[in-house]
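re: that chain from earlier
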Amino acid sequence: MKTSRLQTAEHAEERRGSQVLACLRVIFFVLAGPVLTATAQSGAGGARAAGHEYAVNLTFAVYQYDAQRSPAMQELTRLSGTYSTAQEEIAYLKDKNKLEELAVRHSRSVGLRSGETFNDAVLLGPQYMVFSVTPRDVARGYMKLDLRVRYGNEPLLDVKSIEFENFETVVLRGGKGMFGAKYFVGPGGRQENVPAERTLLVSVTAEIVPVTNLRNRPQELSHPVDEYGGAIRIKESDRFTPPVALERVAPQFEAGRAVRGAVLLGGVVTPEGKMSNIRVLRSLDPVIDERAVEAFRQYKFSPALLNGKAVFATYREEIAFAAPTPSALEMEEEQRKQREVEKERQKRKKP
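^ sequence. v structure.
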């Protein structure tokens, strides 16, 4: 994972690395977008300036929080900087907005041209949460974004033409739904959870780049293939729905072994929702790669659909390994220490 430091808007603009959000001990970044049309995959023309066409690498994270126990949250909040991990972003939001039971539920990184729509879905609780994001008027250092979120048949968020500068992070508050999870410590000290009604927060970070620097293009992430892995050509009128992971399995390692880094895996999801033809697209370590492949093979999927019929389709996922997520007490203690350090600095500044 990237270093855990706050990037100011100016510093972040100089970076070209993706802003990866992570919060679990084994973090899963699903790199397949669950609803795409052939037209959306082909992309639309982006804004041009000085001979360059600009597009955007979007990173968005989906959070839940308990609005009843928290102060009122604005519908739109612009952060003063960009955080490189979900833990840091959560700590900031808790400290500034006093949000209770704030937790990340989903994250995604995708590269889009101006006017290109990306649809995403994740199973949270009993229903799917479905996202639709469309960047517009993308130019050097500036863009607008349309974002819609639904849970089941209920709309949670629908905003249009939200303005972004390069590497700016915007947090949007949505509605309530049973997509939430209430966490508690169960038998043996294990963390467990039960479904709960929670309020939606979505943070979005936009990295505006020349179109040649786009990463995770929708058509690169998933496309229909035949049973032998050969690409299937689709028409503009075809509707392709990539596979959605329903159950994931975490790689198993020896107790006490420290694992850092990420493995990028690819494969084909069968019409029965099983993973096959797995390949290591970016290696970390032979032993770690092997364990990641074993876990990846056990995933269960809702299969890809082509015009409503289950088909074979490619699927990629990056499995990243990081330090364990700090507990709420540890995060609060860290915030307390930071406040004390800031107070000491202010005292030294006074004459």
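The chain has two domains: 33-216, 222-338.
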